[in-house]
Amino acid sequence: IFVADGYGSNHVLKFDKNRKFVKAFGGPGEADGKFKTCHGIGLDMRQGKPLLLVCNRNNNRVEHWDLDGNFVKVIQRNLRMPAAVHIRGDYAVFPELQGRVTVIDKEGNIVAQVGDNPEEKQRANYGLNPALWRAGICNSPHGASIDKDGNLIVAEWSQFGHLHKFVLNK
Fold first, then answer.
1. What pTM, to 2 d.p., does this model score?
2. Predicted confidence (pLDDT) per residue in 71-89, tens digit
3. Which residues pair with 53 in a beta bridge?
4. CB-based burial, 53-90: b 16+ in 10 Å, e otherwise
């Protein structure tokens, strides 16, 4: 069991199958292998061995860690506060709290970015008035998944509740 404690210690916590604490890894900082709000995590099986995929939200990057808590590599930098991860097939989707959603392939290449909000004042804006929302533009993506047809479903961090569906063009 792995828990991202980004709002507390900035460590990922590892527990065994009996819920006994095993270790903490990462820790606060900006260097590779350190966290500044480790937020969403997922088990990534796309590399042939299990790795943790960690959203290092306020360092604006996503990273791979092995299951023993060793830093492996930065997968993608210069994101806009990646908040969560969902993996389906060869793709991982990252809702970025600052108004965008990024999809990467198993090699770590960006294959799509959708919902990009050009208005910086609207990004990561929990109280943004719904009258300012625009179809296809994200304000504060916080959760996302890829459905069975390859469409992206995105949930916004908003006091009013807001969902998007980006349909895959085939």
1. 0.95
2. 999 999 999 999 999 999 9
3. 42, 64
4. bbbbbbbbbbbbbeeebebeeebbeebbbbbbbbbeee
